[in-house]
Amino acid sequence: MVRAMDIAAFQDVIARTYAEQDRARGVAATVAWLAEELGELAQAVRKGTAEQQREELGDVLAWLASLAEQLDLSLEEAAGRYATGCPKCGSVPCAC
Ligand SMILES: [Zn+2]
């Protein structure tokens, strides 16, 4: 079993693992791959097993981290938008 990992550590390991490929591929192609992985996740949700769904969730997260890295943005800071609840109303649960 993989150990628990915070978002910044996840982005860091993805960056160290795929930095060279990410640079060669570029942002536009990374967005295209992320969209493709989202499609695979959608398919797994519709007709996949829990294991397949978990795998596709991981792939989407990895591509999202690659994109954040290429944009020189922190996924953790991005997630921080929701850290105290709904970004619009500030409530947990959302009261919008
Ligand atoms: Zn709200």
What does this structure look like?
The protein has 96 residues and is an all-alpha fold. The chain is 69% helix and 0% strand. The protein contains four helices and no strands. The longest helix is centred in the middle third of the chain and has 21 residues. The relative contact order is 0.14. The model has no long low-confidence stretch (mean pLDDT 94). The site of zinc ion has 7 residues, from loops.
Give a quick account of the main beta sheet: strands, pairing sense, barrel closure.
none
The number of helical elements comes to 4
What general form does the structure show?
A: globular
> Oligomeric state of the chains?
single chain
> Termini separation (Å)?
38 Å
Strand fraction band? under 5%
Give the distinct bound molecules: zinc ion
Provide the low-confidence segments as ranges.
none
Helical content stands at 55-70%
Please count the beta strands (DSSP E, at least 2 residues each): 0
What class, by secondary structure content? mainly alpha
Round the Cα radius of gyration to an integer and report it.
Answer: 15 Å
Order of helices and strands: HHHH
The residue-averaged pLDDT reads 94
